[in-house]
From TrEMBL, chain A:
Keywords: Membrane, Transmembrane, Transmembrane helix. This is YeeE/YedE family protein. The lineage of its organism: Bacteria, Candidatus Eiseniibacteriota. Signal peptide: none annotated. Pfam families: Sulf_transp.
Automatic annotation (TrEMBL), chain B:
InterPro entries: Electron_transfer_protein, NrfD-like. The chain crosses the membrane at residues 20-47, 59-77, 97-118, 147-167, 179-201, 222-239, 251-270, 282-303. Its main location: membrane. It holds the Pfam family NrfD. It is a multi-pass membrane protein. One of its GO terms (cellular component) is plasma membrane. This is Polysulfide reductase NrfD. The keyword Transmembrane applies. The keyword DNA repair does not apply. Keywords: Cell membrane, Membrane, Transmembrane, Transmembrane helix. Belongs to the NrfD family.
Length: 210, 312
């Protein structure tokens, strides 16, 4: 057992930040290459005419899930040491809605706004300033919202625990859900008559033609 | 200072002596930036670019004077006995980097002013008409123009190197005690200046030229940083411990993420794509280069004050 590397002391806090930076830059690079530095492309998923965001992100989730599952199964990764954000049901639902509304209205999520800003898009830079301003306001108002922030605490939850199913079965169900989602997304895109085809590459090509 | 030297010079009270605050890195950054701008201006003058109406040459000396004065202001704020600053100019100590710096800074002002006269900005010429006459006298003799260009390049190089040598001669700080600090700060100052001039240049050819130059300078800076670290980790134990401040120690994230990652590697990559016409030029890369240059000085000044000879 030698992973997670940080938890097993392979490197300290400072080096962990450098590792996070490298992973973050790689994440940003692939988001940009997928065309996710453009607000037009990102909001297309809400109009159901280009679901590249849904497909790319779901692919990433399934890939990470399968990697985690198999590495745990092989004994390389100790899953009990992988950090999971504790569940606070109501504030996380509210936070998800706020982020969703912000995504539809502003055209970016926080990560893609950084990607857009890095490629020189003014709207993304304004969005990043908005994220910073919002973070500042929440920080300053935190004593007022703290009771709500801590409400609905359910601790560290995983789908196998909630569904009372074996881990492997949940993994299989998520994979099936992803395949169903991809088929459905293709159908929706064809129905919308976008002619976008599938995958991020064609999405990026479409973006380039705009 | 008296309290530090009499009662606090004990690693259990003050683990490290920290007497230089934000003023010094800000001054070192602005000094290096102006040094780079002077060298670019000299280069452009030799290439006769100062005669072109759209050239950024006419902006550089005025901007340099403002930025250098801001840097000198920061340096002045750091002085313990501000009223005695004039005493620096009553002597020249050949073995003192601070004495060298004080005189170089004084010499830089007339050099920048002479560079400004090569093409006086119109608003300034309107307010001070005599500058037109001085400018005409200067431009009448090509040898004088070449002298101004050479003086700006020489003094720019001296100023840029001096900002690093000021630190590297302080042998009590193992992190600074490297001959590569002078070239490193010079390369960083030149790179910052190229980024700034690339960003403000109205002439597309000049802007492109400086983006290409900046890529080479960033590459050189990266190489010098690598050699600097190799030098430290292969030196005696005290230098290895100084290097550890940047290699897993408390300044690791600032150094590798802020200076190397966001300040050099990312803008170098983005700007390489931009000069290759694969992405368009934006302000992102030059702004990152400038921020990285400032952070480089902060990291070196702060980490250097933490590095020291025993007890460990």
């Amino acid at each position: 057992m030698n992973a997670p590397f940080f938890k097993f002391g392979a490197f300290g806090d400072e080096t962990a930040l450098v590792v996070a930076f490298v992973i973050g830059i790689a994440f940003g690079w692939f988001l940009e290459r997928a065309g996710f530095g453009s607000a037009k492309k990102l909001v297309s998923q809400f109009y159901l005419d280009d679901l590249a965001v849904f497909k790319v992100m779901f692919t990433a989730i399934v890939t990470a899930m399968l990697g985690t599952f198999y590495l745990g199964w092989l004994g390389v990764l100790d899953l009990s040491l992988v950090y999971l954000t504790p569940t606070n049901l109501w504030p996380q639902i509210a936070g998800g809605l706020v982020l969703g509304f912000g995504f539809v209205i502003g055209g970016y999520c926080p990560g893609t706004s950084m990607v857009g800003a890095a490629t020189g898009r003014i709207d993304a830079m304004v969005y990043v300033l908005g994220v910073a301003a919002g973070t500042f306001v929440v920080g300053e108002a935190f004593p007022l919202i703290k009771p709500f922030y801590e409400s609905g605490f359910l601790g560290r939850l995983t789908l196998p625990e909630v569904l009372h199913l074996p881990y492997g079965v949940v993994v299989l169900l998520v994979v099936l859900m992803a395949i169903g989602g991809f088929v459905g997304a293709e159908w929706l895109e064809k129905r919308a008559g976008s002619g976008a085809g599938s995958g991020a590459a064609s999405g990026a090509a479409k973006e380039a033609s705009r | 200072m008296l309290e530090i030297t009499t009662t606090r010079a004990n690693h259990l009270v003050d683990p490290s002596l920290h007497v230089w605050a934000w003023q010094i890195p800000v001054y070192l950054f602005l000094g290096g930036l102006v040094a780079g701008m002077m060298m670019i201006h000299g280069w452009f003058t030799f290439a006769d670019r100062h005669r072109r109406a759209e050239s950024v040459s006419q902006l550089l000396p005025a901007l340099g004077l403002v930025l250098l004065s801001a840097g000198m202001g920061a340096l002045f704020l750091d002085l313990e006995h501000k009223l005695f600053v004039w005493r620096l100019y009553t002597t020249f100590q050949i073995t003192s980097p601070m004495s060298w710096g004080a005189w170089i800074l004084i010499a830089v002002y007339p050099a920048l002013f002479a560079a400004l006269l090569l093409r006086v900005p119109e608003p300034l010429a309107t307010r001070v008409p005599v500058l037109r006459a001085w400018s005409a006298a200067l431009l009448a003799d090509p040898a004088r123009v070449r002298f101004v260009a050479a003086a700006n390049m020489t003094l720019g190089a001296l100023l840029g190197v001096y900002t690093g040598i000021l630190l590297s001669t302080l042998g009590a700080r193992p992190l600074w005690n490297s001959a590569l600090l002078g070239p490193l700060f010079l390369a960083s100052g030149l790179s910052s200046a190229a980024a700034l001039v690339h960003m403000v240049a109205r002439d597309g050819a000049e802007s492109e030229l400086l983006a290409r130059a900046d890529n080479r300078l960033l590459t050189a800076e990266l190489a010098i940083l690598g050699l600097f670290l190799i030098g430290l980790v292969t030196a005696p134990r005290v230098h290895q411990q100084a290097a550890a401040l940047l290699l897993g120690g408390p300044f690791t994230a600032f150094f590798w993420v802020g200076v190397v990652g966001l300040g050099i590697a990312v803008p170098l990559f983005v700007q390489t794509l931009a000069v290759g016409r694969r992405v368009r030029h934006t302000a992102v890369a030059p702004v990152l280069v400038l921020a990285g240059g400032l952070l480089l000085r902060f990291v070196f000044v702060y980490a250097g004050q933490v590095s020291h000879y025993g007890p460990f």
